[in-house]
């Protein structure tokens, strides 16, 4: 599929998902309004000109051309009735208008849409985790998914203690050195015999491998450089591991005329909880703490580096400055459907909190956590092609976004309407219409500016 067609398909798919979630949001308002005996003129799917209308006894159900919104129109003295229903308004009792129904009912009507978005996110996330037994690509879990074409995977694979490379083998530390190129050596020469040895980075504690010549050269390691203490019986999260590489792979004292080598220290952990497991056949180098040290990456001639890197197999056995080690977020596995369901509740609220923080950053002019339309199109397409579980989790994420967005107390969002009703409850009188109009205009202009900026941020 051409790139331009992928973008269009992704945008259309994203709009469909968003429209479904918004429609369910408005359905929440509609159902609670009906339960509270409010008079609902219209339930609209979409905005703009009508496509068709189904006229009920009281409520008209309308489909409109613009698939980017919807609304639930409830009778009120503050708003004109829909065109063609002016005479009908005269027969609506005040008790069924939004202005006169009990305030506690107003709260429930306003919160109905927010609640539906929360329940949809909860239902999809808990059901999918329980059914599949896994949450994919979880930065807060242990281990990593290893790229078979990169050095970390292949050094782990070459270790006799590793039966099959998977995310149970967790990197505990790593070391990078440089030496003058030696055409007769495939591995680095002991530093006792090569004075050119330079340690570019190390966070493997020398106390873990007391007889290792290269670690003897290492100085004490500041705690901020450690991935994990070598004595620890539990893995740290992937997030901590990957940022240890991100923050330290840009070496300051690289000599491009020397050969670079890398190796890793690792442990095997439980698939479900990250607890260290014993390695017995063959035994770990550090048997007491089940810590294994891989071989070094292979030697190469730095003068021919650019030519060598043209071979796709080069990064499997060699490491050069600027290379990545090839790790990606692991999958979180659940022992049972019940464990997956329970974690789904926790994860829904954790994700909602992360979304709330991303929205909060917008007010400090940090829009990094907000996806542009092109990013949304890409995410929609990727999740659609990844399979039903990924796609429905994406719908859950959009629903959680709408849930959090509507908690913000800025008009025209539901959060402001809740705040407005609460203030009126406290002061025991209605806020003036002039003030409501002023606040609404300011809020709409603010969101319009944010919306325009988000649309064009890819071009800035």
From TrEMBL:
InterPro entries reported in the protein's UniProt record: Pept_M50_Zn, Peptidase_M50
GO MF terms, alphabetically ordered: metalloendopeptidase activity
Compartments, as annotated in UniProt: Membrane
GO BP term (any one): proteolysis
Listed GO CC annotations: membrane
Segments traversing the membrane: 6-24, 107-131, 391-408, 437-456
Required cofactor(s): Zn(2+)
Taxonomy of the source species: Bacteria, Bacillati, Mycoplasmatota, Mollicutes, Entomoplasmatales
Topology within the bilayer: Multi-pass membrane protein
Ranges for domain Peptidase M50: 15-449
Keyword annotations: Hydrolase, Membrane, Metalloprotease, Protease, Transmembrane, Transmembrane helix, Zinc
Protein name: Inner membrane zinc metalloprotease
Pfam annotation, one family: Peptidase_M50
Family membership noted in the UniProt record: Belongs to the peptidase M50B family.
The UniProt record lists the keyword Glycoprotein: no
Main location as per UniProt: membrane
Signal sequence, renumbered to the chain: none
């Amino acid at each position: 599929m051409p790139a331009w067609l992928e973008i269009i398909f992704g945008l259309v798919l994203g709009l469909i998902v968003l429209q479904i979630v918004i429609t369910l949001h408005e359905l929440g308002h509609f159902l609670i309004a009906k339960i509270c005996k409010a008079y609902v003129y219209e339930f609209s799917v979409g905005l703009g000109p009508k496509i068709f209308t189904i006229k009920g006894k009281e409520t008209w159900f309308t489909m409109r051309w613009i698939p980017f919104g919807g609304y639930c129109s409830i009778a009120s003295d503050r708003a004109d009735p829909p065109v063609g229903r002016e005479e009908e308004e005269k027969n609506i009792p005040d008790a069924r208008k939004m202005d006169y129904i009990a305030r506690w009912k107003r709260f429930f009507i306003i919160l109905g849409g927010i609640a539906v978005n929360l329940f949809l996110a909860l239902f999809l996330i808990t059901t999918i985790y329980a059914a599949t037994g896994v949450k994919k690509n979880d930065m807060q879990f242990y281990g990593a998914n290893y790229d078979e074409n990169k050095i970390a995977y292949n050094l782990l694979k070459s270790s006799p203690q590793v039966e099959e490379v998977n995310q149970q083998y967790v990197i505990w530390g790593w070391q990078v050195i440089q030496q003058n190129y030696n055409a007769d050596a495939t591995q680095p020469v002991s530093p006792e015999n090569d004075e050119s040895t330079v340690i570019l980075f190390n966070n493997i504690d020398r106390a873990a491998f007391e007889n290792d010549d290269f670690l003897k050269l290492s100085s004490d390691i500041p705690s901020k450089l450690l991935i994990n203490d070598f004595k620890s019986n539990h893995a740290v999260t992937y997030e901590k591991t990957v940022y240890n590489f991100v923050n330290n792979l840009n070496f300051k004292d690289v000599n491009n005329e020397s050969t670079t080598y890398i190796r890793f220290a690792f442990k095997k952990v439980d698939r479900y909880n990250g607890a260290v497991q014993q390695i017995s056949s063959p035994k770990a180098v550090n048997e007491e703490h089940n810590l294994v040290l891989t071989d070094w990456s292979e030697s190469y001639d730095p003068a021919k580096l650019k030519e060598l890197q043209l071979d796709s197999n080069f990064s499997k056995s060699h490491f050069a400055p600027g290379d990545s080690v090839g790790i990606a977020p692991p999958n979180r596995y659940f022992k049972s459907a019940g464990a997956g369901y329970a974690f789904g509740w926790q994860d829904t609220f954790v994700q909602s909190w992360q979304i709330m923080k991303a929205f909060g950053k917008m007010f400090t002019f940090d829009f990094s956590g907000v996806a542009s339309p092109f990013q949304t199109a890409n995410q929609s397409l990727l999740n659609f092609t990844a399979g039903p579980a990924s796609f429905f989790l994406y719908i859950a994420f959009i629903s959680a976004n709408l849930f959090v967005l509507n908690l913000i107390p800025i008009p025209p969002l539901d959060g402001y309407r809740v705040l407005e009703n609460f203030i009126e409850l406290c002061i025991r009188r209605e806020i003036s219409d002039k003030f409501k109009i002023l606040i609404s205009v300011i809020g709409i202009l603010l969101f319009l500016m944010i919306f325009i900026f988000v649309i064009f941020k890819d071009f800035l």
